[in-house]
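dude i think i finally got it to work??
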Amino acid sequence: MCATIFSKKRSVFIALFLCVLGVPVWIHAQSINYTVCNQCWLSDSLGNHRAVVKFNGAGNVAHALIEWRRRDTDPQLKRIIVQDSATSKLIEHVLVLKNSREEGDILFEPISGKGIYYVYYMPYKNEGRNNYPKGVYPRPLTTENSSWLKQARADIYPENSVCREIQSIDAFNSFYPMEVIATDHETAKLVNAHKGKSFIVFTEDRDHPVKMVKDLPQRWIQEGPMQNFKGKADKGEYYAFQIAIYALKDLQKVTVNFTDLLSSDGKKIPASDINCINTQGIGYDAKPFTKELNIAAHTIQPLWVGVDVPSKAITGMYHAKALIHTADGTAQTIALTLSVTNNVKPDGGENEPAKQTRLKWLNSTLAQDNTVIAPYTALQLKNHSISFLGRNLELNTDGFPKQIQTMFTEEMTGYSQTPNNLLAAPLHFEFIKCEGEELEWSHSDTKFTKVTAGTIQWNTVNHNEYLQMDVSASAEFDGFLAYTVKVIALKDVSLQDINMQIPFQSDLAKYMFGLGEKGSYLKAPFSWKWDVQHKNQDGAWIGTVNAGMQYSLRDEHYVRPLNTNFYLQKPLLLPTSWGNDNKGGVNINRVGNTVLVNNYSGQHDLKKGDVLYFNFNLLITPFHPINTDFQWETKFYHQYNSIDSIKRTGATVINIHHATPINPWINYPFIEWKKMKDYIDEAHAKGLKVKIYNTVRELSNHAYELPALRSLGHEVYSAGKGGGFSWLQEHVGDDYIAAWFVPEIKDAALVNSGMNRWHNYYVEGMNWLVKNVGIDGIYLDDVAFDRITMKRIKRVLTANGHPGIIDLHSANQYNKSDGFNNSANLYLEHFPYLNRLWFGEYFDYEHNSPDFFLTEVSGIPFGLMGEMLEGGGNPWRGMVYGMTNRMPWSDGADPRPIWKLWEDFGMKGSSMIGYWSSNCPVRTDHPNVLATVYAKPHQALVSIASWEDSTVNIKLLIDWKKLGIDQSKAIISVPAIYRMQNKKTLTLNDQISMDKNKGLILWITEQPQ
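look at this
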């Protein structure tokens, strides 16, 4: 008789075979522990997982059957590596008999005899770019033909090795318990036991997030389906748990509703305090929504449920029901029991994010009220004119702008009494019939439906025999206008064209960027066509330094595309109206004193009842005057370092990037927050401010909420082809876009999908960081949210007197991967709330024109000032716009010599008069050598930079009266600036040699008699 306890099917076969031969066999069921061996091996060559196998047999063939229950697909295509623990040598002779998701059947040569051997079953190597790696799993490698291999293949060997442990390189990489799969047999048995049902329900607490969609975890096989859930929560806590649905067939329109939580003595936590984030929520724009939830057969959908336990709840046991329904009438009821303790969490438990308490933030409406943000002022409505900081808007009878005025000086340092009239004629639509006749309109009175300090809204109805055009619009305190233009066909009509004409005053339409054009002097005639599959282009900015306007063309289906390397994976949607099957486009022409921007859509054949939306947005620039004193006083240091060493540089604000000890995980600064707080407290005590890297575009895989966010489908994370770093492939699986990766700490991010509830979380997170950590602002590295979220962020960052400094860095977006958009055009809607620009990587400071510098880099036409990055920038050209470079970053990027000059001169309080102003008192006799003046009583700094292709000699042309210096008492000196220029004195008549791409900084002083 065979005394055998079999562990697996192959073992059964071998044991029976040996029994027939009269060989007694004992094969014990494996009891596998899942353990962590922190950094015990080199994961980048051996992988993140291994089986610890003990060889107990004799001879030179070890046989191990390993029940690893792995979630990855096609394991047979991945290499197996065996290592001897005694010598750390890799085993040369390995024969893999079977490598499935459920188990591995392996023979290897135990070179040290009895003992422990390691079986690495998911080795990988990183290929591709350093920060965008491609985790590659090598193919199986069969030992070359050898005597050992011949022997192993020829004989049948009983299992003589036992798998003691499945180890991970660290806890973060562990599959246990929620990623240890059930076998096909176990799953089939479970399904057969529930024949006739549409779905099976499992419940899980917050400590065991559901992570697999296509596989049941072994844990559920062991525990079985559940019709109840029991949890324990503190008073005031947001308590999260999961109801997981395993669909046995396709399920449509799954809903979950809750009854009140009731105690035995009648106390109640109302059902309104229970929420399922998978079926309902509040959007980033504060609008409630319901999600249609469909679940494909043989997949798992976790429902994340949160109970907002009132802080005044009575201690005790509460009972409720969760009612799950599907479209076909199938229903299941889950009994819920919540034990409320006597402990109170006044913060809602949000200081313990690992408990998923911050899922409540997904539905936050914090800072949504459109209150006015400094330095802006309340909107004023008088008749049909709306005024806001430095600008005025007059409406025409059709509801569109009749005139737009700005009140800024040419220098952009203050306000002017003389308005700049941006429009040569009213902005208007033209509807042209096929025979060339333009339709005339009748207009209703414009109705102002909302008048507040932050927002004014109005409606106008325009109509004629064929069409009705409903205009709904709003103006906001920062100069943003949003138009919804709904065109309804009242009868069948064929139109040759529908277009929107923007007639700019020619002298104010000096520069342009957007629609495929880099920042430059506006070229006309100009023509552009839609190409959304390749180009992130739907509008442009046109204007001059102290007056301008950005416009963008949209329809009702507009969705913000991805940006920063990922545009092609989620491009713009072609507007049905403006694009019109690629018939639409833009033409710009000069007509007399007008620059006419014609946004046409081409021929339309409309049937009665057809509706088209010709929506568009306008941003009137500048937003406010430039704050030069902030520029001179605020000196940024971009590196984590000791506070004392930073203070010695003269910097006043520290920008803490990600991948640093106090902010390691990209866009998730909540794990090492206590270290961050200690650092910021020290900085504040020593007179420095601290800002942190934190934006929305991609999110670290270390985010506690990752499984819950993945349960929302593509709401938070973009759809994609997967891949990237090994952790993502092993634990996320598929259907994502791998983003930024930091090799040193193995932080692997996923791309966010665009506008979604993660922005609510982001705003709440910023608020929490201000209150609990004391951050002084944020450093944005490109932006994937719109102006709604930006305004909310600015409000929470500046609440209660906090400085709320925001600077935006952008890599140059004018490339194929980013859809050939201009960074300034892409982010202009955020400029009203920024304090400084960092434009940025891949910006060419050597081969672009002054117009490009002025419009796309400096920020000056919008009320901002900036700094340079790529290659350390060009210090001479930078100073013409008041810019330095970023310290410490690029080689040679050291702004301290310029900072010293600012201090020696006393830049605070000086008047910046740029070369773009007709009032600039210093010019040169060469049109491509430009000068900007920083003037104070009886002295001035003059920054000169050349855009000539070769060395030229120049002479200064000085209007001494404008400069405010007595020429007879003037001394022109060249101050010594390290690595820029040597000290010397000049006379007015001197020829000054100006090297290509360089310049000179002069100090003019009036000497007392």
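Residues 655 and 681 are 15 Å apart (CA to CA).
im so relieved honestly
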